[in-house]
Amino acid sequence: MDLEELMPQQPDGKKEEKQKSPLVSLEKDLELYASSIKEVALEIMLEGISANPIFIAHQHTVSIGEMILNRDELHTEWSIQASTVEEFIEKGIIKPEKKVLFLKAYKKPEDYMCVFVIVPEGANFIYYPYQKR
After folding, report:
1. What is the mean pLDDT of each run of 10 residues along the chain (133 residues)?
2. pTM
3. Contact 8/61 with Cβ under 8 angstroms?
4. 6-32: string of b/e by CB count within 10 Å (b at 16+)?
5. Whole-number pLDDT of residue 13
């Protein structure tokens, strides 16, 4: 699955002005969202949906996962959708042959949220601790 498929119908025309990294606002929002995200992660695991929840952080419309925190409703910078490693494999974001490698790198979901961050320039996985030490 390509990035364009994940982010359908994006407005054309990018702002050329210098902006600070979107990751600064993402960290602020993840701090705010941490307890809600952890609650959803535990629910996904306890209900047997998946042992490996993945959360998608985005600022546009994406076509994976289920919306759990909407930036428009919460007046924040980032929306969060909940998904699983199984959906990521099904959609081709994680190749089946890379599943074992991905799961080896996957951090303990009780302590870290696995976040797939999508920005117009690309996407990547990060692990963010629920409680900063």
Report:
1. 50 47 86 96 97 96 94 96 97 95 96 94 93 68
2. 0.83
3. yes
4. bbeeeeeeeeeeeeeebeebbeebbee
5. 45
Closest CA to 85 of 58, 60, 56: 56
- If phi > 0 it is left, if psi is from -120 to 50 it is alpha, else beta; for residue 48 that is left
Residue 5's H or E segment, with its range, is helix 3-6
C-alpha 69/C-alpha 10 separation (Å) is: 20
Cα separation, 37 vs 20, whole angstroms: 25
What DSSP designation does 96 have? G
Q: Outline where DSSP puts E strands in the chain.
A: 53-58, 66-69, 79-84, 112-119, 122-129
**Dihedral sign, CA of 57, 58, 64, 65?**
positive
Q: What is the pLDDT of residue 24?
A: 81
| C-alpha distances out from residue 22 to 6, 25, 59, 122, Å | 18, 6, 10, 12
Q: What is residue 44's predicted lDDT score, i.e. its pLDDT?
A: 97
- Pair 15, 67: CB distance under 8 Å: no
Q: Cα separation of 9 and 12, whole Å?
A: 9
